Amino acid sequence: MAAQPPRPKLPPLTALRAFEAAGRLGGFTPAARELGVTPAAVTAHLKTLEQSLGAALFERHPRGVALTDLGARVLPDFTRAFRQLDAAMQRLEGEATPGLVRIATTADLAQLWLSPRLPRLRRAGFQVIPVPVESPGAARGLADLGLFLLPGAGAEAPLIAVSAPGPAAGLMALDPAFTLSLAGAAGDWARWAAAAGIPAFRPRGPVHGSAALALEEAANGAGLLVIARPLAEAALAQGRLIDPYGIAAESGLTLALWPLRDLAPDSAPAQVLAALA
Amino acid sequence: MAAQPPRPKLPPLTALRAFEAAGRLGGFTPAARELGVTPAAVTAHLKTLEQSLGAALFERHPRGVALTDLGARVLPDFTRAFRQLDAAMQRLEGEATPGLVRIATTADLAQLWLSPRLPRLRRAGFQVIPVPVESPGAARGLADLGLFLLPGAGAEAPLIAVSAPGPAAGLMALDPAFTLSLAGAAGDWARWAAAAGIPAFRPRGPVHGSAALALEEAANGAGLLVIARPLAEAALAQGRLIDPYGIAAESGLTLALWPLRDLAPDSAPAQVLAALA
DNA sequence: TCTTAGGCTAAGAAAAACTTAGGCAAGAAA
DNA sequence: TTTCTTGCCTAAGTTTTTCTTAGCCTAAGA
Fold first, then answer.
1. Distance in angstroms, CA of B38 to C1' of D14?
2. Pair B84, B108 in one domain
3. Are A234 and A166 in the same domain?
4. Exposure check for chain B: N or C terminus, fewer CB within 10 A?
5. What string of DSSP letters covers A133-197?
6. Would B213 be classed as within a structural domain?
């Protein structure tokens, strides 16, 4: 049975989602990140949509885009609709597999903080799966809980310096070459050094992109690593690393675990949230 | 810039839409009709969806399908969400091209009833486009107004018999071979003949699938055609056809024109509705 | 001036969606 | 009973959509 009319052509859902994300986030590039595609794909979607509409949704500026009047007027409707759709999908997935809890987090937090806590939760009957995302914003509709280091008041994630255990390490004077740094955490060393009373200290050692890797290096004796304590706790507890100076600095970050959607009081996500908090 | 994780995999929107339609309409086949695809496509979507979910949404019975408990529980959420999405899309299209009015109707009504009325509306600044659909249900989200012959109380669409003008035609006794019938309107001749006082009359002439074609044939003198008056009015007004017997029978159908969504009071669709009613 | 951010385009590749064709089981019709 | 019809399923193959890669362009900021 073929469709009689050439093609009724219902609204291009994918393109609409691209529009919604781009409008809400204020650009094609962040939208692409959220959707998990390249910016070129978003460009193409918007082009299609505007063409089929016969009207522009964004003004193109050389440095970015801005919603047109029309775009701004209709965006909230789409945001609402997609939020409802996401919520419905979440509910469906939740009800389809009771006990399932998805936690959106970074790869580092998943490996270093969440992973050690999973066995206990699994034994309690929860099927916890970490969903790796780049930022809290990208978690939209993908998970029940979010776990991130966020800029925030609490001093719950202090910076500490860690190194391999052994008598020598802790006693050495600070050597700029005997350091390990994390990419994207440029200020951490400065903050810690200031707290340690050496404001002018500049690390010169290798920079790692992954906290897990940097910790591994540190455990192998490659240098002194400044890192948020929650990420190092497991290794400290195992004795693979030590905190030779015992100096903690404010990181300005808090380890936050919070619901990404409304949770039914006794649902699996709510229970896991309570268990981890 | 490639997406880091293999693929965050947002919900398969097309499959969700198939689920929603199938759930709401109570079967895969009607859903396929509404979506303008074959039933096999709907089957495949549901299979994908249920597989990725790890749970069944429909119980398969040999004669059809029924929502499972889970499916029934979540369906309303999806219906609501998609309705909102459709509404947003409608609003977007409406605002993008002011003056645009889409009327969902059958090919016959579009050609025979709507088409003659379009020039006046076009001159009034409305861009009216008929959207051909098979049934009112399939119009969901595709148009602003619906125009159909519906089973209904009013006698607004009586059946009449028409033929080519000329002295002989009207005077002839009824000849079963000198008839034209419409496919899908099996009872029409019987009703009209009953009203004419010839209850046992059975037409034997050719059967046409399209009212427009049948009217054309009748105008060419091929026979007597029983048809709902609204469809023949234009040809009668032009003198291309006559109503030789002057006998009208109840068709049980009413020509209905109604809004398929909420219309803003002074919007183009509302004005066109008022002008046509 | 150089660099960077953000978007655009074209071409080709990958993945999703759809159709066709045939099959099966149960209720309806003969 | 037998036959027909309805509604869904499966497999194979094709079309359409969606996405990525790679290179270009403009303006703002260092």
1. 15
2. no
3. yes
4. C
5. -SSGGGGTTT-SEEEEEEE-S---S-EEEEB--SHHHHHSPP-TTSEEEETT-HHHHHHHHHHTT
6. yes
